From TrEMBL:
Domain of life (superkingdom): Bacteria
Keywords: Signal
Annotated signal peptide: 1-22
Provenance organism: Niastella populi
Pfam families: MORN_2
Protein name: Toxin-antitoxin system YwqK family antitoxin
PROSITE patterns (UniProt xref): PROKAR_LIPOPROTEIN (PS51257)
Amino acid sequence: MITKSACLVAAILVISCHLSKAQDEGNTLSKVDDSAIAKPKSNLTYEYQYLNDDHTEGIEKSFLFGKLKTEIHFKEKGKFQAAKSYDTKTGRLLKTDTIVNFNRLVGTTTTYYANGKPKEMEHRDTSGVVDQYSAFFQGGNKRIVIHYKNGKRNGLLTEYNPNGTLKETGTYVNDKREGVFKFYDVRGQLITTRKFRADKVVK
């Protein structure tokens, strides 16, 4: 499962500080080199492009040694942002996020394989709490979908074989298997069922 990184949030907060400074200066497009305040020199630069006159909507980019590192789209006075992270060596997209006010992750965080296809997706409700997790095979087919509530697995779990057929289905209640779980072979044919109560098999 995708790890929530405090470092990501901290980095975004730092970026937001630079964003506020650039907005105050009233530039339509500006570059800010943080080498004057960062010791040792970080070689990290920022570029801001505003899409309206009051600077409430635009795109912020950061570059490491001249290579694109992050891209943040903001609008509605900072109430909504879409963030993208890139590999500065290859230029490929690593991760996308949706963010509220730079400090609460909502919507979907997606990580990607080298071929550009999604690897994992973690969806959060409006409070920032995870309510669904999905993972994919490198070819693009779904691998697993798990529903969450209050930080625990709650609801239907569906797991797939690489060819797209069902592998396992069942329901979790507070992180424990509850009720009937069904298991399938690679052709999607039912192999067996098991009944669980509080994560233990019952007859």
